[in-house]
Design brief:
about 425 residues, about 0% strand
Length: about 425
């Protein structure tokens, strides 16, 4: 269904859509090449210390936000989008250099974990901001599922390459392959600028490369003042709780089941492989139909409702198999439906919100959710609550997340209706 839709779109959209697909493919192939390595390093550091890893990541995100805001304010999209990817490419070169000095490798583990956690959110957030700037709210329902499939195909490729190359190349080889795929995304980000205007159905498409302006700290103001951003922020804050609980328990489970980093990395690669395979199948066969049939609001409730069911089941059956199963199901549904649906909500907001507000929510608020979740779990443990109780709390919060998602989606649908009625 989704592949057929590719040939039914307007001819003017095809080049931009194919470039966007490859762009996201390269981005997530690069990330998933490194993700399993990062997860193994995190388990070595100790799941009981995840709260400190997340706190460090959050502080780095706090420092990075004003820098990103300044880039968006002072440079056109044609400049600041490639600059973001160029910076992270240079970081990979830096890690390659550090890896050549054996004495520095242990210290690299902590820095690498935090860096990748920051880099992933920024690169993906900038990508989806770019997509919401190119495609309007009506195009989003048709094409965002296909674009998301590029990311899932990349995740599938990255995880598969990690498994195939495990034991055959060292981490410097993994970094080189990851560098090549991120470089592909860098090229696509530049190339997409040539086709964005002709592909867009926006009335202001000719102003796409105009300077956005504003201040470097405008994102904080936007989130406080704009009602849609408040709900999207709440959705992001709440959505990290259930996933964070699963992630922490998975870390403890992996440490008990596997003795060394190579086996742990292979396990995480298998989970990523299954997750992205599920997401890809959903995106190809169901995403466009679900967008058009259910609408944004109902689509945004699917992942939290599934997570609520999964965490509820884990209260009764807290096994390693069940944890892995619901990791795959919840993340697969999030990638296929949740993230494109949330991204589409920004298509009806202005350009400053698309880049600054969205970037703030996708990075700062997301990592704030991680920090609050990990420290809250720590606190519940100090109070004597067991794993089953933590799963129960997560299930309740997932239910609240579904409500927040529905409200944010309804607001988006109402903005579309008002725009249609005013024409």
């Amino acid at each position: 269904m989704q592949l057929k839709a590719l040939f039914e779109i307007d001819r003017r959209e095809r080049a931009a859509l194919l470039i966007a697909f490859v762009y996201f493919f390269g981005l997530l192939t690069s990330y998933y090449m490194l993700r399993s390595v990062r997860e193994a390093m995190g388990v070595r550091f100790g799941p009981e210390h995840y709260n400190w890893l997340y706190t460090g990541t959050f502080l780095c995100m706090l420092l990075a936000q004003p820098v990103y805001g300044a880039l968006v304010s002072r440079f056109s999209r044609r400049v600041f989008v490639p600059v973001v990817y160029a910076f992270f490419l240079l970081c990979i070169v830096g890690f390659l250099a550090v890896w050549q000095v054996p004495a520095w490798r242990d210290g690299m583990a902590l820095v690498f974990y935090i860096w990748l956690s920051v880099a992933n959110l920024f690169t993906v957030s900038v990508f989806w901001s770019y997509m919401t700037d190119v495609f309007d709210e009506h195009q989003a329902k048709r094409v965002f599922g296909f674009i998301a499939a590029g990311g899932s195909a990349g995740g599938l490729t990255g995880a598969a390459l990690t498994m195939l190359l495990a034991g055959k190349i060292d981490i410097d080889g993994v970094l080189l392959v990851s560098f090549a795929f991120l470089g592909l995304s860098f090229v696509c980000a530049i190339a997409l600028g040539r086709y964005a205007q002709q592909a867009s159905a926006r009335a202001d498409a000719d102003a796409m490369d105009a300077l956005i302006g504003g201040t470097s700290l405008a994102a904080f103001r936007l989130v406080v003042q704009e009602i849609p951003l408040r709900w999207l922020s709440l959705l992001m804050l709440l959505s990290g709780i259930g996933g964070g609980i699963l992630y922490l328990q998975q870390g403890f489970m992996v440490r008990e089941l596997f003795a060394d980093d190579a086996l742990r990395a292979a396990y995480f690669a298998r989970i990523d492989l299954l997750t992205n395979l599920l997401a890809l199948l959903l995106e190809i066969f169901l995403a466009r139909w679900m967008f058009l049939r259910l609408g944004t609001a109902r689509l945004m409730t699917l992942m939290p409702l599934l997570l609520m069911a999964g965490l509820g089941a884990l209260v009764v059956i807290p096994t390693a198999f069940m944890i892995g199963l619901f990791q795959v199901l919840s993340r697969g549904v999030r990638f296929a439906f949740g993230e494109p649906a949330i991204a589409s909500c920004y298509t009806t907001l202005d350009r400053e919100v698309r880049y600054k507000g969205k970037g703030f929510i996708d990075t700062f608020v997301y990592r704030l959710s991680d920090v609050l979740t990990q420290w809250s779990i720590k606190g519940l443990g100090w109070l004597g609550m067991g794993v089953g109780g933590v799963f129960a709390v997560g299930a309740v919060m997932a239910g609240v997340t579904a409500v927040a998602g529905y409200i944010a989606g309804r607001q988006h649908e109402e903005r579309i209706a008002r725009a249609v009625n005013s024409e």
